[in-house]
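Schema walk-through. Below, the input block comes first and the output block second. Nothing else is stored per chain. Lengths vary across the set, and this one has 264 residues.
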Amino acid sequence: MPRVKPVDFEDRLTLVEHLDELRTRIITVLIVLGVAFALCIWQNNLLLEIANAPLPSDREPITFGVAEPFTTTLTVALYAALILTFPVLIYEAYAYVLPALSPRERKTLLPFMLMAPFLFLAGIVFAYFVVMPAATDFLLNFNESEFNIEIRAKDYYSFVALTSIAVGILFQIPTGILAVTRLGIFTPRQIAANRRYAILIIAVLAMLLPGTDPVTMIISMVPLLLLFEGSLLLARVLYKPVPEEPGTEIEPSGEPPGPPVEPA
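--- output ---
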């Protein structure tokens, strides 16, 4: 029987119970995904109009196969359903790992878990209104005199969906920075001292975006760098050293205190 009762920090579950709870949460996500998919199929014309908006007004996607309009529409609906299901996926993932967190860690991470879906949606909006128009304008006009450029629907919609999802995930940078500093894993000073590595990682991630080009890479990097610096500034304001657990005081020698020695 699947577990639906929340698990407390003090509870001790067997492996079977853990797997049972994981199955329940996966089924919940799949049900939500199915409902979202049905809704997107119902509104597939609206979804295709939204996806086509970043294209120049004189261009529209084309198909080559008999079944391609049908399969492409299903693919677009599935991508949209995944985006709609993401907040539920975040919640279920948090609820599953919640019992492993101490009350202090739970209290620390909850605001960031609530912030994650909003940052994801902000990334989707940024990708749609900023990244996609710039990317399509650059890519479709690159060496246009040398090619007969047509836009295949299947490839274009995959490009739109994967780019949007990737930018949405990259917008989780503030959540990660604030979480690791609040948990005491890293200090803001340590992150700032390794800023050059963070910039390199952001550049590599922006370069790995689907169908990336120099324009898209730069446009994607700018908000990510601003998010990184803003998160680091906020982390410095909110940073509080993690209190040591009682009984773990360190002596000047660097070793934990030993047992008291009785007089001879």
